[in-house]
Amino acid sequence: MRTLFLSALSSALVLHAPAGMAGPETERFIQKSRVVNCPLDTVWRKWTTHEGLLTFFGEDNSMELKIGGPFEIYFSKDAPAGERGSEGCKVISYLPRQMFSFSWNAPPKFPAIRNGDYHTWVVVTFKAVRGNRTEVRITHLGWLKGDDWDQVYQYFDKAWVTVLDWLEKSCPR
What is the pTM of this model? Predict the structure, then answer.
């Protein structure tokens, strides 16, 4: 039942972009997953709290787990405003301990995409697995067409693997 629900949810997110966002022009998406050596509750807190994000994702953050709340990861606190990280990104939805989604922008090195009005979005799902471990699946959706968008897609196809590496390293062995 859970798989059916999450499949329907992912389909709904692909078909219906968050409020204020145009729908994607392509159906492509990035999907990465990893089983990490942390219990589900721990992994949920790592992704959905200010303190948890500090354990693996960025130098600092502004995170409020509520619909429309900030989901801003700062990779460079000393950079000028607007170039610190995922500034302006918001929580889209969540189902406690199962799914969390947020809008996402491009890095500053892609100003044409970053400074536009359109953001992609990310759905992170969580599933407890045997041995007190957790499967984390990241699905990055909402890609538009064009050379600049292709470059950002290629960037995140690699970057989400790095984020999962950081998450895995933050969990005890």
Answer: 0.85
pLDDT digits (tens, 9 = 90+) for 75-107: 988 888 888 889 999 999 999 999 999 999 999
Q: For strand 60-63 and strand 71-74, is the pairing parallel, antiparallel, or unpaired?
A: antiparallel
| 110, 86 contact by CB (below 8 A) | no
Q: What is the DSSP track for 12-63? A: HHHHSPPTT-PPPSS---EEEEEEESS-HHHHHHHHHSHHHHHTTSSSEEEE
> How many of the other CB atoms lie within 10 Å of CB of 20?
10
What three-state secondary structure class fits 84? coil
Topology given in CATH for the domain delimited by 2-170: Alpha-D-Glucose-1,6-Bisphosphate; Chain A, domain 4 (3.30.530)
Residue 7 has pLDDT above 90, yes or no: no
41: left (phi over 0), alpha (psi -120 to 50) or beta: alpha
